[in-house]
Design goal:
Elements: H1 2-24, H2 31-55, H3 66-110, E1 114-121, E2 126-132, H4 140-151, E3 158-161
Helix pairs in contact: 1-2, 3-4
Length: 162
């Protein structure tokens, strides 16, 4: 009976640890890995009492061969690469959408025709590049001021090209 009491207490602790790990997960993309791992641990945890009852007092141990450890490491690295790729794609998509949305706003604020708006990511900031038509007669300083004011960024982050 002591075995079942210890097993139930351990199960409660395991559930709490899985819940804490799930809450501490930095992004939703890691949740499937945690749920999969937790599912495996629960599966082995549920098999343990049956093994104990069938074999008497023998302890149930699980050993992971070296090949399985290598596979787990490879899958982890593959998962991290996929997440990094998804993050880069998401950033590129957000920048593209921002460019498309800013173009008419900047044209309206500056009362001028702008050929295109490009946003480039620097290490910890963004640069906004405005491509103007050569026959555009609007003063560049005013366009820079209006764009910086509209986007609430410094003037040095706005570049005008012809």
């Amino acid at each position: 009976m002591q075995f079942l009491t210890d097993w139930a207490a351990g199960l409660g602790i395991l559930i709490m640890l899985v819940l804490v790990a799930d809450m501490l997960t930095p992004s939703d993309s890691w949740r499937p890995f945690i749920k999969f791992t937790a599912g495996l641990i629960f599966l082995f945890w549920m098999i343990n009492p049956m093994q104990h009852l069938l074999n008497g007092a023998e302890e149930f141990t699980i050993s992971f061969p070296e090949e399985i450890e290598k596979w787990v490491l490879a899958e982890k690295m593959n998962g991290e690469a996929v997440i990094e790729s998804m993050s880069a794609n998401q950033t590129a998509y957000i920048l593209e959408q921002s460019e498309q949305n800013l173009h008419p706003l900047i044209e309206q604020a500056c009362s001028c025709k702008i050929d295109s708006v490009e946003i480039s990511q620097q290490s910890d900031s963004y640069k906004v590049t405005l491509l103007l038509n050569a026959d555009n007669q609007v003063e560049h300083g005013m366009i820079i001021d209006q764009t910086a004011s509209l986007l609430e960024i410094s003037r040095s982050s706005v570049i005008i090209l012809h």
